[in-house]
Write a structure and sequence with these properties.
Length: about 475
C-alpha cells in the first residue's frame, strides 16, 4: 500500500496515534495521501469504514476520494458487505451535517423533513421580508445583507448581537441587517427550512445542547480527516474540535499558501495555530511537487515567502528547470487580450493545433472582450461554467413541487409554484395573503386558507386558489 508513496507521504500515512498536520503544497499528492490513509486505517489498522469521517469542501472532491478508496478496497469486499467502503463518511461539511440533522434535528425544534435554502432562496426570502414588513430600503443591496448574515452565523453572532453592534458603531446599515436577520430566522423556522450556514450552525447547537447526541457521534467517529484545512471558517473548526475532543484521532491536510477564501470567512489561523489546540501535534511537510517545473515553483515561492503569517516550506520537483516564465504588463484590457490571442495563434502555428490551450480569467465579465477577439480571428473556443443545472428556472420549479411533497410548510416553494404554470392567481391575491399572514402571525399557507374560509379573496382568484390546494393535497 505504501510502495507508490514518497518518504514524507509514508510518514503522513502511518502516523495515526496523535494529531497530524499535513502541510501539502500544491501538486504534492495530498489526495493520494488522504485516500491511502483511509484505506490503511481500514485494511491495516482494523477501523470500520463508518468510524472514519473524512470531510472536504466540494461534492466533486468527496466523490473522487470515495472512488479512489473503493479502488483500493472494493475488489476485496462486496459492495453490500457491512465493511464496504460504501459506508464511509467521505463527504463535505454541509453533507455530513445535513445527514446528522435529518436524524437528530427534532431535538432542537425543527422537523426532519426540513428544506435547505440555497443562496438565491435566501436572497428571495430577505427581499420578501423587507417588502412584507415595509422596512426602510437598506443602503446596500440584498447580496450584502445575506453576506453579512452568513458572516454573522459563521461567527455565531445572534441577531441581537448584530443589532447591538450597529448601535455601538452608530452604523445604520448593520442595525437594519440585525433587524432583517431576526425576521429571517423567524421565517426560516416557520418554513421548516435551513440555509447553508445553518447546516453547520444547527449541528453545533445540537451537539452543545444534547450531550448524549454529541457523545454518540464522538463514539462513532474514531478517526477524523479534514481536507483543504486552510479554507475552514470559525464554525467548521468549532464543529471539528467538538467531535475530536472525544476518542477520535485527527489528521488535517492543507496549505496556508493556498488560503484565498478569507472574504467568505476562511480563517488562516485555523491551520497556523492547529498545534495550540491539538497538543503533541506531528507536522509533516509534503514539499515534492509532481505537477510543475522548478522555474514555476521558484517564482511562486518568491511571492508566497513574503506572507506575514506563514508555515515555512519550499516546493521542489524532479521535472527539472523547465521553460522560464513570461511576464507581460499590458496598458489596458484590449492590449492584454491582443497579446493573449497573439500567443494562441503562435502556439497554433508552431504546435499545429489548438489542443492543450486554456485561458483563465478571474471574473465572468472578463470573457466578453476575450470572446470578441477570438471570434475576430476565427479561433474556436469553448466556455466552461455558465448557469448550473440546479440553478435553471425550470429545474428550480420542479424542485419546488418536490419540496412541497415533503415539507408543506415551505413558503418559498409554495409561492414559487402557485402560479407555475399560470393559474390566474396574481400579485394582488398574494399581497393580500401576505398582509393577513403578518397581521395574524400565521405562516403563508395557513393565511391563504384563512382568506379562503373567510371569503377575503374574491372570485375567480378564490376558486383558483381552492383548486390549487385541492391539487396539492392530491399530488
Amino acid at each position: 500500500m505504501t510502495d507508490t508513496l514518497n518518504p514524507k507521504q509514508k510518514e503522513a500515512l502511518i502516523e495515526i496515534d496523535r494529531p497530524v498536520l499535513i502541510l501539502a503544497g500544491a501538486g504534492s499528492g495530498k489526495t493520494r495521501v488522504i485516500t491511502h490513509k483511509i484505506a490503511y486505517l481500514i485494511k491495516e489498522k482494523g477501523y470500520a469504514p463508518w468510524n472514519i469521517l473524512a470531510v472536504t469542501f466540494t461534492n466533486k472532491a468527496a466523490r473522487e476520494m470515495r472512488e479512489r478508496v473503493f479502488s483500493f478496497l472494493g475488489t476485496e469486499q462486496d459492495r453490500n458487505h457491512p465493511y464496504s467502503p460504501q459506508n464511509l463518511w467521505v463527504t463535505t461539511f454541509h453533507s455530513a451535517c445535513g445527514r446528522i440533522l435529518r436524524r437528530e434535528i427534532s431535538k432542537i425544534g425543527f422537523k426532519t423533513n426540513f428544506t435547505i435554502y440555497d443562496s438565491d432562496d435566501s436572497k428571495k426570502l430577505v427581499k420578501e421580508i423587507i417588502k412584507i414588513n415595509k422596512l426602510p430600503a437598506p443602503s446596500e443591496n440584498v447580496y450584502h445583507i445575506t453576506s453579512y448574515i452568513s458572516k454573522a452565523k459563521n461567527l455565531f453572532e445572534s441577531p441581537d448581537h448584530v443589532i447591538q453592534t450597529g448601535i455601538n458603531e452608530d452604523n445604520q446599515f448593520v442595525q437594519q441587517v440585525g433587524q432583517i436577520y431576526k425576521l429571517y430566522e423567524k421565517k426560516l423556522f416557520e418554513n421548516n427550512a435551513l440555509d447553508f450556514d445553518d447546516l453547520i450552525l444547527k449541528t453545533i447547537v445540537l451537539f452543545e445542547k444534547e450531550k448524549e447526541t454529541l457523545a454518540y457521534y464522538r463514539d462513532l467517529f474514531r478517526y477524523i480527516m479534514v481536507d483543504e484545512f486552510q479554507d475552514t471558517n470559525h464554525s467548521q473548526y468549532r464543529l471539528i474540535k467538538l467531535l475530536a475532543e472525544g476518542k477520535a484521532q485527527i489528521s488535517v491536510v492543507g496549505d496556508d499558501d493556498q488560503s484565498i477564501y478569507s472574504w467568505r470567512g476562511a480563517d488562516i489561523s485555523n491551520i497556523i495555530d492547529f498545534g495550540n489546540d491539538f497538543k503533541d501535534c506531528h507536522v509533516v511537510k509534503l514539499e515534492q511537487n509532481y505537477r510543475s517545473t522548478n522555474h514555476i515553483l521558484n517564482a511562486a515561492h518568491s511571492v508566497v515567502q513574503r506572507n506575514e503569517r506563514r508555515l515555512k516550506k519550499e516546493l521542489w520537483s524532479k521535472k527539472g528547470p523547465g521553460e522560464k516564465l513570461k511576464y507581460f504588463g499590458a496598458k489596458d484590457d484590449r492590449s492584454e487580450v491582443e497579446r493573449v490571442v497573439s500567443e494562441v495563434i503562435n502556439i497554433y502555428e508552431t504546435e499545429n493545433g489548438f489542443k492543450g490551450i486554456a485561458l483563465f480569467y478571474r471574473m465572468n465579465y472578463q470573457s466578453r472582450i476575450l470572446e470578441e477577439y477570438l471570434r475576430r480571428e476565427s479561433i474556436p473556443y469553448r466556455i466552461f461554467g455558465g448557469i448550473k443545472f440546479y440553478e435553471r428556472m425550470e429545474v428550480k420549479d420542479i424542485l419546488a413541487y418536490l419540496i412541497l411533497m415533503v415539507n408543506e410548510r415551505d413558503t418559498l416553494a409554495f409561492k414559487r409554484v402557485i402560479n407555475v404554470p399560470k393559474r390566474g392567481i396574481g400579485a394582488t391575491t398574494l399581497q393580500k395573503i401576505d398582509t393577513i399572514a403578518l397581521e395574524l402571525g400565521l405562516p403563508f399557507q395557513e393565511a391563504a386558507i384563512y382568506c379562503i374560509d373567510n371569503k377575503m379573496i374574491r372570485n375567480p382568484a378564490r376558486d383558483k386558489l381552492i383548486a390549487f390546494f385541492d391539487w396539492l393535497n392530491n399530488f
